[in-house]
Each structure stands twice: as structure tokens, then as C-alpha cells.
Amino acid sequence: MDRTTARPFRTRLARTLLAAAIAAAALPFAPPAAAAAAGASRPDAQEQTDACPWGYTSSATVFFGQDQADSGVPNRDLGDGCTIMDAIWAEAPFANHGSFLLTVTRLTGSIKRDGVITSPERVRILLAAARSDVGKRQPVTRTRAVPDGRIGLVLYTVRATMPAAPEATLAALAGCGYRNAEPSGGVNNFYGRTAAQLAPLVARAGLTVPSIGVGLGDLENNLDGVIADAQAFGARYVRISGSGSWDLDDYSRLAATLNTVGARLNQAGITVAYHNHGFEFTEQDGVRGYDVLARETDPNLVAMELDLYWASSAGVDPVGLIQQYPGRFSLFHVKDMAADGSFADVGEGTIDFSRIFAYGGLAGVEYYLTENDNPRPEGVSSACDSYANLRALRY
Questions:
Q1: What is the distance between the alpha carbons of residues 237 and 230, in angstroms, rounded to a whole number?
Q2: pLDDT by residue (tens digit) across 29-47?
Q3: What residues have CB less than 8 Å from 228, skipping those under 6 apart?
Q4: Domain map (residue ranges) of the chain
Q5: Domain 148-392, what architecture?
Q6: How far apart are alpha carbons 267 and 264 in whole angstroms?
Q7: What is the pTM of this model?
Q8: What is the DSSP track for 236-265?
């Protein structure tokens, strides 16, 4: 943005925030009803002072998305276990961006008077809110395409041929257009090879590796090995998945683990990401495990790899998740769903990817990784069909 355009923008922003502050000045702050209800949903809620037991972590910042939408202001506790972010998002969904700004203006005014934040911190939060896309409708224009350099394949799709014929498989994928791949496995074991053995084969095929999949046990017990493998591939993300047997406390413990290892990985230039299935969206005492993970992990340390098929299969709207957790979804697993609920090649099923991709900026997505858990007639041809369909998609 040059100076001639920046000055009018700042002027309009100042007027918007001033008008919002004037309109909200007379509105008192009250503890959000939704936040209070969240405390009552936990069995031992009456035995603790935390009114938001599954709320946003106070170790993170007030965050409405990446870059300038991250205020950098600590997400402080308001005195009852609820944080600034808990208070703001308890009033979601927002009808529009203006409604969101009014909410942030009113709440930050109240908590400033209570001494939770300073005047400069309030300004930083308001500016971050104004710069965000929260509450803004993102229409499908059919004029945009997914950048070719951001399309990749989850190699689970070609798991049948990768162990015996990795060179031929990778060459075929590159031949139909792929530029990126996400291998899955464990420390020192990716389709029967170590990362040091497989990485040169991937590079010779002309593919890069933005992300690798490992097991949770690797993160907990062999973090040095995870870092070494990620660096061997040149990966910037390491992702793990969860378990359908977990309760909410398990998700909370995982969030703490991801924050801890995320800080260590961050020092190595790597971000840990959580990949969902469908079970995370099952409510337990009115709370979803996915929400515990999203709220209790630090967005500056932990990303989410949103599997569009599994979210949709659980009846969850991916756009709704993006609106609820802006800036958290660095990676998409782009998987399609057939009419009978089974897997389909991308673009040949029922998921409206155009509508989802229109919110890519709000999501913070960097890579669109296609996948088919049950490819037909076999992995390479299925993957190539998905690539061609995704390249042709306009949103």
C-alpha cells in the first residue's frame, strides 16, 4: 500500500473505530452468557473458579487472523477463568464486520476500565479487528484459481505403490502436474525408507515437501528425530492426528503438548499442525474436542490441517469453522465426498470447494493437498484426476 492510499485508509479506519467507540460507550460489560454456560457444562465446574474451562488459552495473544490481524496483546484472564477472546467469541456469530467491530469496541472499552488492558493495547486490538476479515462475506466470483505451486498430494493416496516403486510413483505424480507432496509415516520410516533415503527421490522427481505426517508418539518421545526428518525433507509443517477414544481432558492435555512441542519446533522453523477426522466434532457435555484444541493451542505455535471430507462427513460446515477460528488453517486436505458418503476424487463429489476456497484468506491457507483414502482404479490415476479437476476449479 503506497502513501497516497494508506492515508485515506487510516482516515476511514479511524472514523470507523471512533464511531464504534461512541456507539458502544454507554454499553456496560457483562460476563457473556455463553461463557458462563460453558462452565456449567463441565461435571466438576462448581468445584473450580474457571467459568470457561474449555476456553481460549491465556498464553496466546488476542488473535483474529494472521499477520496484521494478530494484535500481539496477551489474551489475559478477566478474573474468572474467561479470557478476552472468550468474551469476544461468546457473542459470535457476527452478522457482519461492523457488528464484530462494535462487539470488540464495547468489550475492550470495559476491560480497559477494569485495568485488564492499557489504552495502547486496546488500540492494537481494535486495529487488528479492523484489519481482519471476521464477519465479512466472501462471495464466489469464479475468477480465482488455486495457485499451481500451492497444490500437493497426500501420499497416503498412493501408499500401495510407494514402498515398492517410489521413483516411478513420484515421477508419475510430477508428470501430471503436482509440485508438492505430503509423506506420512513415522520417524525413520516413510513407506519403508528413512527420511534421508526418501527425500532425494522426492526432490529428483521435482516435488517439494511442505508438510510431513508423523505419529503423536514421535512428538512426545522423539522430537529430535521429528525435527531431523522434517529438515531432511525441507518441510515447514509436521502434522499429527488424534484418537476417537479421547475425552475432553485428553484433548486439553494434547493442546498443552502441542504448545510445548510447538515452541521447540518453532525454533527450528517448523510448525506443528493437527489433522482432524470426524470424531473431534462429537459433543461431550456440550463441548467438541475440536474446539478444545483450537482454543487451548497458541495460534502462533500450532496450526490446523483441515480435512474437508472428514469435517463435512461429521455434518460440520468448513466455512463455519474458518469463521470461528480465523487464520488457523494453514493446510487443507482437499478430499471429496460421493453422494453415498464414500470417498471421491476432487471435483467429482458433493463438496462445494468453491464456497470454501472463497474463505481461504480468512482461513490463512497456504497449501491445498488433495487426497483420496480409497482411490479407484488406483492411486496415481486417482491423484492425477484430482489434480486436473482442482486446477480447473474457479472460485
A1: 8
A2: 333 333 333 333 343 433 4
A3: 187, 195
A4: 3-131, 148-392
A5: Alpha-Beta Barrel (3.20)
A6: 5
A7: 0.88
A8: SEEEEE--TT--HHHHHHHHHHHHHHHHHH
